[in-house]
Amino acid sequence: MLAKKYLDHATTLLQRLKDTQIEKIEQAADLIAQAYVDGHTFYAWGGPHSSLPVQDIFSRAGGSPLVNLLIAPALSYETGPINVGMFLERVEGYGPEFFSQIGAEAGDVILLVSTSGRNAFPIEVAMSARKAGLKVIGVTSLAYTNAVTSRHSSGTKLYQHCDVVLDNLTAPGDASIADPILPQKAGPTSGWMGIVILQTLMVAVAEKLHDRGITPPIYVAGNIDEKDEYKQAMFDLVNKHGTKFGGIYSPFRKVK
């Protein structure tokens, strides 16, 4: 049964994640929490398919308003045709131009998700962010990225421009299940592994904020009839400190 085979593989991956990535997740959470305390902003991007894990931590029940979702035109599946996005993520020059229009400042943190880590856009956004004084967190597959060549003229990959690298443990090519009845492997893992990593990260961020004496802001589900006072407090926080990306600036931000 291929379904059971896939679920067994998923269980193994989750255990490997727990065994190998917790320390890195804690490091990334420290960067985000400290940036918030210091008055800075947290941005997150992923694309094209890697946009899905980032969207899963954005503006949702149990999630954090700290997340400012970056969507680059044509590099997510909200817009098409899909082949245009596959072309644009390989084009040099798009990444720096996109980053220049975010309005990010030194001390901010940006998270970038790219499983292969080989294409120009995430590499150049990471390069631009570090040059501007941001901390960069990368979510990628080290096995995958080390099995392919860079598509950027620098010859580098995303992970080489990150302060913290979170490995989603995806196999080269993403698909994980081989069987004689299949023409090629099936069962990709990068999407849901990315979601697990990022949700784990944001839970860790909440803990890090608590450890720093700050009550972590957390969205309450709009479809439950309770915690009205807390819901209003979250609404007021976002209304007062909201950004054009749907998240918030840190309330401790010093306005220049």
What report would you give on this structure?
It is a single chain. The chain is of the alpha/beta class and 256 residues long. The chain has one domain (2-241): Glucose-6-phosphate isomerase like protein, domain 1 (Rossmann fold, 3-Layer(aba) Sandwich). 42% of the residues lie in helices and 12% in strands. It has helices at residues 2-20, 22-37, 51-56, 82-88, 94-100, 120-131, 142-145, 190-211, 228-241, and strands spanning 42-46, 67-70, 109-113, 135-140, 164-167, 175-177, 186-188. The strands form two sheets. A five-stranded parallel beta sheet has the order 2-1-3-4-5, with helices on both faces. A two-stranded antiparallel sheet has the order 6-7. β1 (42-46), α3 and β2 (67-70) form a beta-alpha-beta unit. α2 packs across α8 (190-211). It starts with a helix and ends in a 15-residue tail after the last helix.
Rg result: 19 Å
Task: Calculate the terminal CA-CA distance, rounded to whole Å.
Answer: 61 Å
Which structural class do the helices and strands define? Answer: alpha/beta
Strand fraction: 5-15%
Topology summary:
Blueprint: H1 2-20, H2 22-37, E1 42-46, H3 51-56, E2 67-70, H4 82-88, H5 94-100, E3 109-113, H6 120-131, E4 135-140, H7 142-145, E5 164-167, E6 175-177, E7 186-188, H8 190-211, H9 228-241
Parallel strand pairs: 1-2, 1-3, 3-4, 4-5
Antiparallel strand pairs: 6-7
